[in-house]
Amino acid sequence: MFEVLNNEILAPGLHRMLLRAPRIAAARCPGQFVIVRSAAGEERIPLTIGDADEDAGTITLFVQALGAGTQKIVAVEPGGYLRDVAGPLGLPTHIENWGRVACVGGGVGTAVLYPLAKALAAAGNQVTTIIGGRSAPFIILEEELAAFSAQVRVTTEDGSRGRQGFVTLELENLMASSASRPEVVFAIGPVPMMRAVAELTRPQAIPTIVSLNPIMIDGTGMCGGCRVVIGDEAKFACVDGPEFDGHLVDFQSLGDRLSMYRDHEDQCRIGLHQEN
Amino acid sequence: MLNNLSAKERMAIAREKMPEQDAEVRSRNFTEVNLGLTLEQAVREAQRCLMCKTRPCVAGCPVAVDIPAFVTHLAQGDLAEAARILMRDNALPAVCGRVCPQEVQCEAKCVRANRGLPVAVGYLERFVADWAMANDAELAAAAPVAPSGKKVAVVGCGPAGLTAAGELAGQGHAVTIFEALHDTGGVLRYGIPEFRLPKNIIDAEVARLVRTGVDIECNVIVGKTLTLGQLRAQFDAVFIGNGAGLPVMLGIAGENLKGVYSANEYLTRVNLMGAGQITDSATPIMRGRHVAVIGGGNTAMDCVRTARRLGAQRAMIVYRRGESEMPARVEEIHHAKQEGIEFVMLTAPLAVLSDDAGWARALRCQKMELGEPDASGRRRPMPVAGSDFELPAEVVVNALGTRANPLLTATEPELKLNKWGNIESDENGATSLPGVFAGGDIVRGGATVILAMGDGKRAAAAIDAYLKRA
Ligand SMILES: Cc1cc2nc3c(=O)[nH]c(=O)nc-3n(C[C@H](O)[C@H](O)[C@H](O)COP(=O)(O)OP(=O)(O)OC[C@H]3O[C@@H](n4cnc5c(N)ncnc54)[C@H](O)[C@@H]3O)c2cc1C
Ligand SMILES: Cc1cc2nc3c(=O)[nH]c(=O)nc-3n(C[C@H](O)[C@H](O)[C@H](O)COP(=O)(O)OP(=O)(O)OC[C@H]3O[C@@H](n4cnc5c(N)ncnc54)[C@H](O)[C@@H]3O)c2cc1C
Ligand code: SF4
Ligand code: SF4
Ligand code: FES
Ligand SMILES: [Mg+2]
Questions:
Q1: Would I find Kinase among this entry's keywords (chain A) (predicted)?
Q2: What is the full DSSP assignment across B321-352?
Q3: Could you say which of B256, B281, B407 has the minimum Cβ distance to residue A220?
């Protein structure tokens, strides 16, 4: 049992949760995730470790309440418990000092991006952060990211905050001048966004790391359900990733596989609303 | 009850049939297929045993269960003594009675198999174990042992780890099991389906272990949450029984389409997560009208019979060789046939074909014929030219097998592995690292429950000796 110490809403449906998990707090590195099961009988849900405090024995999760599984997680109030939290899983992000790095986050991907961007800045990189969302309320962690970013650029689809358009717009601007052109790009967000970023950086061969979010169960390499196609190879995102070379990822297959249970998921969501 | 029959009288008794759920009914539910012998049946079957002095059946059992002794007490109706003898050698008899491949182990060696059918050792083992579970109170509790003051960590809560933990606790050591998943049992829980091995049996066995003082910590992935190095620093010895949970991929086109599963994923969704068993289960599974399962072992049988229970009209086994080469337990093959499973033999998959929306729609296959025997002694399947055909399948399950999962071993370069990634150990389970022992599938590759248990038991004895030396 893992105690929830804090649970606050950052944006519509997006919660920041603080948990007591001393072993994970001590072992985790940026880029790794946990698998959470809120209660007996519930799904196993992978979530990135947003932050950790080894001394306090706590970890932070950013949870977007999308469907039944995540909604049950965010419903746990401070003082309550999550039954299972297992991790840290996946490989840590490879961090080095490349110089200029662009960190691009879309939607809840911004939360997944946060620990990486922080670690990249700590390693001496000049981090430009580009974050996007549907509209102003969905822009998250701007202040937190500004604390270590050289610059934070914001885009929204409806123009209600920052520039109107997609994150690729700002990335293109950065890439346009040799003075701001990043050496490496990290992109984390919905599949179409990561794909668009990879297509944008490909002609200039700017190394682009993406963090993939296929459907997972165990997270230990046992089930093979999280396989993604990287170049010609099938890799297990939970043990070989979740970060991969964006120029080698088969985004079509990833998107397809993520949609495998759409019908079931819709029904669960309806069921949840009827209960409430 | 009397057990003073003559050999001739014993020989005249016919082998009991296991009562089972009707095939039509059970192919739509997940409750156990075999219902268990009645007391009368069990006693009669036990009376078939000739109590051979040479005990060939015992030699056929990897943990040397004292078969004639427990069967004799059963034949006399002394169930408590039968249970005591059985459990002296086998920590999980209710499991083994159900899933051991008896036909190649104890029963294969039974003298009665020379003329007719062997004594149904598996059925009797199951009967006695189930009785013991229901009549816990009548069994004398093990005498409490003096604590040794030593601490042992066990990695993995499958049959190897559970057995090692039970033995070590019995020797007075303080045992903690670390398990990566959120629940106990290893393959017994996430792999073998409810209709073959009910989960309440695993629950009862685990509860018994916990009562003896064993600590079980789930959600701890050794190599990630804690390292082997940390365990070695915090405990006096470590036993590694983390299994062989890494699926072997098919390596054919279309393997990543929607609707294509590894056996581990398919079975885990259903057995561990409850998909398709409880209505409204949180974790989903694709049902499919046509399901093709590739492989011929126990895992393949479990997948195809699960598919049937999930409503498949055609649930098919696709296997490269012939039926007699299939490694599955004969009882599973027999039950599968009764349940309407189709056996597409001498057939190899070439590719999974998709529809416009990225879903599997069919398996492209090729016919095979058997050539010369290969290294395994089985005749090698050879493709028949021009024999390609399509098998409709919206769900395809790859049950080709598993290999050693490198998650733990990769974090400890000092631990010696063989070329397949299995941990190298001596006959007592000692590895290249002092105080670190290993057993079960991580050492053998995919093997059997009873072999994993035997390893756990031998390693526990070796650990006890090691701790007494230390
Ligand atoms: C490595 C990794 C890190 C992640 N980090 C975060 C994070 O920090 N914060 C966050 O909010 N989300 C994160 N996600 C995504 C999150 O796991 C999914 O949103 C969640 O599982 C959806 O489950 P649900 O039952 O709430 O929604 P559902 O309605 O069941 O599913 C919504 C969509 O989520 C995807 N999904 C469903 N089940 C799973 C599953 N078991 N594993 C992965 N994806 C699934 C599918 O595309 C599905 O269509 C991460 C995913 C991965 C793989
Ligand atoms: C579907 C299926 C059907 C089978 N049917 C039969 C049968 O009928 N009869 C038979 O005799 N055998 C059968 N087998 C084989 C048998 O189940 C295995 O040989 C046996 O379970 C091996 O036991 P084990 O304890 O070595 O490993 P496992 O049962 O695999 O248990 C290993 C445990 O370790 C955990 N683990 C893994 N990595 C870590 C880590 N890093 N840290 C912590 N924990 C970890 C795993 O989650 C798991 O719980 C079957 C196997 C399968 C897959
Ligand atoms: S443990 Fe298995 S092999 Fe040994 S006697 Fe029992 S059923 Fe037979
Ligand atoms: S070999 Fe068969 S008949 Fe002889 S003791 Fe063993 S079980 Fe009984
Ligand atoms: S989630 Fe099962 S192998 Fe990655
Ligand atoms: Mg869900």
A1: no
A2: S-GGG--S-HHHHHHHHHTT-EEE-SEEEEEE
A3: B407
Q: What class is the A2-89 domain?
A: mainly beta
More confident residue, B2 or B147: B147
Which residues from chain B sit within 8 angstroms of residue A239, using beta carbons?
407
At B379 the three-state DSSP class reads strand
> How many Cβ atoms are within 10 Å of B415's Cβ, its own excluded?
19
Select from B184, B283, B299 the residue whose CB has the most chain A CBs within 10 Å, as the one to mutate to test that interface. B283
Query: Alpha-carbon distance A33 to A207, whole Å?
Result: 23
Q: What confidence tens digit (pLDDT) does each residue in A44-80 have?
A: 999 999 999 999 999 999 999 989 999 999 999 999 9
What does pTM read for this prediction?
0.95
Assembly ipTM: 0.95
Q: Which two tokens stand for residue A249?
A: 């990822």
The beta strand positions in B384-462, using DSSP E, are: 389-392, 395-398, 402-403, 436-438
CATH classification code of A100-258: 3.40.50.80
pLDDT given for residue B280 in this prediction: 75
- Distance from the Cα of B275 to chain A's closest Cα (Å) equals 10
CA of B103 to the centre of ligand 4 (A): 13
The helix/strand/coil state of B365 is strand
Query: Residue ranges per domain, chain A?
Result: 2-89, 100-258
Q: Domains (ranges, CATH) in chain B?
A: 7-138 (1.10.1060.10), 151-245+404-469 (3.50.50.60), 247-401 (3.50.50.60)
